[in-house]
């Protein structure tokens, strides 16, 4: 039996007995193939029966053809879908070094917190200076008959500090005291600094404890370079009090 299609008729014209059978994809007719035609069709995946007398259903023939086509596709170039995946996935080249990770920036060390020094409430007139004459020493050479202050033996030009916060009452010449500065302290008492060589403040100026107000000297009624320091309850001669006791009462002992 021959298929009505011409190409199948030509292929089966010279078929030999027991030649392999092929199934027409269009009509399902079994064809007896000869020679080279059988070889070509079978290599292309067209199913053939083992002998001329073995029938093969059309469904199995179609499946065989599809399987042959799939075999040819696997043997050849990759399918279109596989080629698309290959394009999207960039595989590393052989021998390529992996990209180095960017080094993390080191975190900046926190800045140390520097505590601001607390302002002092009271200070010595010349911290650490040695005392050369104490308060209250009897001496007929003084108008009051005794020493009304405390003397500190220091060289000319030594810095002199305010013992506490207050206001400058005067900064100038005061007869036997020579160059002198008088402060009115915040508590109402007065501090006098005498025999100075230079002023660092002027009358009416507000000062704080430890602030430089003058330089020591040897002016006025003085027998040598020193600082004469007094504390008074009022700004008059003779209203003096023990200056070192006053300082100790306010927590100062650096003298």
Description:
It is a single chain. With 255 residues, this protein is of the alpha+beta class. It has helices at 6-12, 35-43, 58-75, 80-88, 243-249, and strands at 21-23, 30-32, 48-49, 131-133, 150-152, 159-161, 166-173, 179-185, 190-199, 206-207, 212-216, 227-232, 240-241. It folds into two domains: 6-77, no CATH class; 131-249, Glucose Permease (Domain IIA), CATH 2.70.70. It is built from five helices and 13 strands. β1 (21-23) and β2 (30-32) form a beta hairpin. It starts with 5 loop residues before the first helix and ends in a 6-residue tail after the last helix. Its EC number is 3.4.24.-. Residues 146-235 form the M23ase beta-sheet core domain.
What is the name of the CATH superfamily of the largest domain? Glucose Permease (Domain IIA)
Please outline the major beta sheet: 10 strands, antiparallel
- What is the string of SSEs from the N terminus onward? HEEHEHHEEEEEEEEEEH
How much of the sequence lies in strands comes to 15-25%
Spans of at least 5 consecutive residues with low confidence = 8-15, 36-81
Count of DSSP H/I helices: 5
What is the radius of gyration?
60 Å
**CATH architecture label name of the largest domain:** Distorted Sandwich
Overall number of structural domains: 2
- The CATH topology label of the largest domain is Glucose Permease (Domain IIA)
Keywords: Hydrolase
Domain M23ase beta-sheet core: 146-235
Protein name: M23 family metallopeptidase
EC number: 3.4.24.-
């Amino acid at each position: 039996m021959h298929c009505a299609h011409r190409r199948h008729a030509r292929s089966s014209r010279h078929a030999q007995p027991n030649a392999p059978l092929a199934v027409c994809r269009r009509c399902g007719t079994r064809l007896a193939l000869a020679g080279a035609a059988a070889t070509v069709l079978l290599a292309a995946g067209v199913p053939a029966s083992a002998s001329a007398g073995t029938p093969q259903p059309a469904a199995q023939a179609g499946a065989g053809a599809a399987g042959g086509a799939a075999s040819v596709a696997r043997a050849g170039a990759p399918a279109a879908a596989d080629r698309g995946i290959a394009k999207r996935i960039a595989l590393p080249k052989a021998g390529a070094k992996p990209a180095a990770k960017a080094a993390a920036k080191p975190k900046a060390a926190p800045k140390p917190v520097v505590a601001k020094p607390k302002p002092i409430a009271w200070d010595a007139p010349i911290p650490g200076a040695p005392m050369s004459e104490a308060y209250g020493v009897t001496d007929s050479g003084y108008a009051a008959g005794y020493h009304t202050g405390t003397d500190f033996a220091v060289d000319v030009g030594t810095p002199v500090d305010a013992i506490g916060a207050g206001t400058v009452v005067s900064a100038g010449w005061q007869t036997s005291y020579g160059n002198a500065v008088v402060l009115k302290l915040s508590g109402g008492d007065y501090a006098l600094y005498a025999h100075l060589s230079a002023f660092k403040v002027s009358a009416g100026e507000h000062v704080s404890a430890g602030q430089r107000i003058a330089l020591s000297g040897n002016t006025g009624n003085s027998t040598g370079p020193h600082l004469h320091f007094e504390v008074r309850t009022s700004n008059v001669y003779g209203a003096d009090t023990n200056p070192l006791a006053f300082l100790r009462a306010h927590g100062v002992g650096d003298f």
